[in-house]
Design goal:
mainly alpha, single chain
């Protein structure tokens, strides 16, 4: 009986470490998505601005709208996965550590809303800009 309890606790400790690593990797991925989106959109707009005399850019200027939409959906999916991991890790911490782990600390922080709010503002602003720029570059 003691071995089962020890095995179960060891499993949850290893699972918690794995999920924390997964959470950190997902958080990094969201920032990479923002970077890659800005690079792709900037490269396309730069090329379009440099070649505005040609008639071939009429459709190309709309490509950033598609890119931002697809990357934004991916970032939102990653955020939802991170939120689920956060809740599960908080549950694990409450059972293993008496609610003293990092996720409980982060959830109690007054600034816990800043990261998702700034990501939301980034994607909304970029979406609006990608919708407006094609009209300017015409």
């Amino acid at each position: 009986m003691q071995d089962e309890t020890t095995d179960s606790a060891d499993y949850f400790v290893r699972e918690q470490a794995y999920l924390r690593d997964t959470y950190a990797a997902l958080r990094k991925e969201t920032r990479e998505l923002e970077t890659y989106t800005l690079l792709a959109v900037g490269a396309i707009w730069s090329w379009c601005a440099a070649n505005s005399g040609t008639g071939h850019i009429a459709y190309l200027v709309w490509l950033p709208v598609v890119i931002v939409g697809l990357f934004g959906m991916r970032a939102f999916g990653v955020y939802l996965h991170m939120r689920a991991l956060n809740r599960y890790l908080s549950t694990l911490e409450s059972r293993l550590c008496d609610s003293t782990g990092w996720m409980h600390f982060a959830a109690a922080s007054d600034y816990r809303w800043i990261w998702p709010a700034t990501a939301f503002v980034f994607w909304v602003t970029l979406s609006v800009l990608t919708l407006l720029v094609p009209f300017v570059l015409r």
